[in-house]
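Supplementary Methods. Inverse-folding protocol.

Structures were first reduced to a discrete structure-token string of length 503. This string, shown here, constituted the complete conditioning input.
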């Protein structure tokens, strides 16, 4: 028979994983033994998964975030090692002691995360509420030496739902409760009265300009009222005098208010800073505008240079093309004019070649006849030689005449080409002369005549100078100007009053 312990808990048979009575628990002593949960009546399916009761409220140990309570029925993790995964194998069962173990000299160093582990059930117990996905029960644990009294319990100091808490945690709970009570009891503080705006109002140049204009207007009004008071100082009655005085005082008060702002050192300094910034901004804008204008001018100049280069290149190509076309035209004309002469020259050359071939043939036949023993007639040979020499001489003389004719034709062609170029240049000179006459008529009218006698006679030159000198003025005269060194032409885009005279 087993004896009933003082704590009211029945002693269970010792297992290999349980220490003896009074034996201190050391690390690595408690090992997991397969099929151990069946000996304690443990059922794996009776433990619901964590997602079913993640926010269960367990007595006084609950928090606003509904974390699981700290389970005091389990020994510290450093005493029984790391527990196996929940869904891989059952966790180790808590040991059963015949009497409480002695108190530890120092509080256990339980990690913070270990306090949020899921609680374990008592062996042999299974709450039917778990099948309904209700909150898991709190494990009972016998009292240990050195622990505080349980917060709740009705059966021999230990009952289901008993939770042991240390003094530090209890003090924290009490302090939180007191703090919540104080916060709820204190009425909300009334909103603090708006502090006077000590900061200066942001000064703007438009506001300063308005104040300056207003001050000038008030000063003018004050001067007008002063004149009126001076005029009616002897004749005005008391009511009218008081009205003018009150009006003057109001204008003066408004003017003094504006002057007070202008006498404020901070206001003046801030206004100076604004003026300096505005001046710097204007200078910056002017500088940027000038830079943009210079950039545009530089871009225009570069564009004009590029256009001038392009025009020069095009003119060069045009000249080369004109020269090539002119040469081709001259060649075609020479071929058409000199074709007959060249044909005659080719016929003369062909006749000379024919005579030379005929002489070679007769010489060959004479040699062949001599080798065969047939002598040739000397008179016939002399006659043939004389005839061929006469014919070749006549053909050569004719070829010389053809060469002379060709040279004559070439000279005539060159002269005609020079005449054409001279005609073109004369045509250009005539166009330039007409342009000069048009400018003369534009400047002096259609009835103006050119008088060039001053370049031939000294008296005429003096007369012309006297006519011009009558218009001389001093240098400081507003209409004074120097005599232009060339013709002063009208602008390319004249105004509307002069546009009628432009052709």
């Amino acid at each position: 028979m087993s004896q009933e312990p003082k704590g009211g808990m029945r002693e269970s048979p010792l297992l290999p994983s349980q220490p003896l009575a009074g034996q201190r628990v050391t690390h690595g002593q408690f090992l997991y033994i397969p099929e151990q949960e069946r000996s304690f009546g443990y059922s794996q399916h009776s433990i619901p998964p964590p997602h079913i009761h993640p926010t269960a409220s367990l007595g006084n140990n609950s928090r606003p975030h509904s974390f699981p309570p700290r389970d005091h029925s389990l020994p510290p993790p450093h005493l029984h090692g790391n527990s196996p995964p929940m869904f891989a194998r059952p966790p180790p069962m808590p040991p059963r002691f015949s009497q409480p173990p002695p108190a530890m000299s120092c509080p256990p160093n339980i990690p913070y995360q270990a306090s949020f582990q899921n609680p374990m059930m008592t062996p042999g117990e299974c709450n039917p509420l778990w099948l309904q996905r209700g909150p898991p029960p709190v494990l009972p644990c016998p009292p240990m030496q050195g622990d505080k009294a349980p917060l709740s319990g009705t059966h021999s100091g230990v009952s289901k739902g008993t939770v042991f808490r240390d003094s530090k945690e209890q003090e924290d709970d009490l302090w939180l409760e007191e703090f919540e009570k104080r916060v709820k009891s204190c009425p909300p503080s009334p909103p603090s009265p708006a502090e006077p705006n000590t900061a200066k109002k942001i000064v703007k140049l438009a506001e300063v300009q308005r104040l300056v204009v207003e001050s000038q207007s008030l000063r003018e009004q004050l001067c007008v009222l002063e004149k009126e008071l001076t005029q009616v100082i002897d004749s005005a009655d008391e009511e009218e005098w008081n009205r003018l005085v009150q009006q003057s005082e109001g204008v003066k008060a408004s003017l003094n208010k504006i002057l007070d702002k202008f006498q404020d050192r901070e206001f003046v300094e801030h206004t100076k800073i604004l003026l300096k910034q505005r001046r710097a901004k204007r200078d910056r804008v002017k500088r940027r505008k000038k830079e943009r204008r210079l950039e545009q001018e530089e871009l225009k100049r570069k564009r004009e240079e590029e256009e001038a280069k392009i025009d020069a290149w095009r003119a060069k190509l045009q000249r080369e093309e004109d020269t090539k076309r002119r040469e081709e035209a001259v060649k075609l004309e020479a071929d058409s004019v000199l074709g007959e002469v060249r044909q005659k020259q080719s016929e003369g050359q062909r006749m000379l070649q024919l005579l030379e071939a005929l002489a070679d043939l007769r010489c060959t036949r004479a040699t062949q006849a001599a080798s065969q023993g047939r002598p040739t007639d000397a008179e016939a040979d002399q006659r043939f030689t004389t005839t061929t020499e006469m014919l070749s001489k006549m053909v050569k003389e004719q070829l010389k005449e053809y060469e002379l004719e060709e040279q004559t034709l070439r000279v005539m062609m060159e002269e005609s080409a020079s005449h054409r170029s001279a005609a073109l240049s004369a045509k250009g000179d005539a166009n330039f002369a007409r342009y000069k006459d048009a400018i003369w008529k534009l400047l002096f009218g259609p009835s103006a005549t050119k008088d060039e006698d001053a370049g031939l006679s000294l008296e005429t030159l003096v007369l012309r100078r006297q006519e011009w000198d009558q218009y001389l003025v001093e240098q400081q005269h507003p209409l004074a100007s120097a005599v232009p060194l060339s013709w002063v032409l009208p602008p390319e885009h004249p105004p509307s009053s002069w546009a009628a005279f432009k052709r």
